[in-house]
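Page 42, continued from yesterday. The earlier attempt failed because a stray header line got pasted into the input along with the sequence. Redoing it now with the clean sequence only.
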Amino acid sequence: MGRLLRCKHTRNKFLAVFEGIREELIAHMKSENMPEDAIAWFNENLIYNVPGGKLNRGISVVDSVTILLNRPPTDDEYFKAALLGWCIELLQAFFLVSDDIMDRSISRRGQPCWYRVSDVKGLGKVHNIAVNDSCMLEGAIYHILKNHFRRESYYVDLLELFQEVTYKTEMGQLVDQITAPEDNLNIDKYTLPKHTFIVRYKTAYYSFYLSVALAMRMCGVPDAYELNGKTVEPYKEADRILIPMGEFFQVQDDYLDYHGTEAQIGKIGTDIIDGKCSWCVCTALTHGTDTQKQFMFENYGKKGPEQTTREQAVKDMYNDEEGLNIPKRYEEYSKNAVAEINAMIELVPEPGAQDELRGDRLRRDVFRAFLSKITDRTA
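This time it went through. Structure tokens are written below.
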């Protein structure tokens, strides 16, 4: 089977589990005697916001479980891994619906942001109802976990992982929002260390660490174990590698926001107009001349009649091969980041041949698989 066909099969098999989850959540709404219009609305919320993305986070749980087990999962193991994957996709949907409201974004995944939908199955426009809709997407996570994992020995570990990672992500979102407040923008506060902090909390934990940590809990990987006379702490190892990987992913995202097209990335890049604390602007302010910095102060994040012209002027400055040359700086950063992450992966203690069929030991391929999904991405 070719790579594209394999990817399509993997995605379709994973999507089939979502249909079951959606039906289960709708059945629960009915059991609570919710009115028909509320049920129809929630159903549309699920369909519109949850399954439309690349699904990398969710599918990575299944991939990680398969690598840890070192064999194809049984049907039950696949189903449980896919359920946990869809819980991450629900978390992602909760974050994106909320984030789009806060950022007043226009489009997401090639369609209008949920809060901008003008009519939901004849029931009216979404607008501020999106705030509650995002909360319901988060609530659905804990309903699924309780329904399917309550009797598992690792149930509390799953709850703690979702709660801790959600809280960390919200901390990152807070720092992001107050660093770049729309009504009082001050790009003087934008630095690469500040960007790293925001990214680690806002993106890396839920987009990278969570998938692998959930898979490890499901496979019974303990907090620590002995290997060749050394103590291995697998969750600390995962944190050490996956958080920098998440940082690399967000830098890619920041770069694509300015350099990618809507057809490529599924949304209209708004970081420059919104005045976001992105890797591009932090790099420009770190390496730019006083004249270039002054130009950034005058044009970055400036909304109004001339915003499109100002945005293009900033992009032109980023693109200047004789000046800032952000594409070249990004290429160098990307190359170094991949090399550093690969070097970290090589330091993970590997189980020997005697442990080949043990699923409760960390394996380097878990990280290699994740890195291969994001290297050289264009969307």
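Notes: Residues 3-31 form the longest helix (29 residues).
Reminder to self: strip header lines before submitting.
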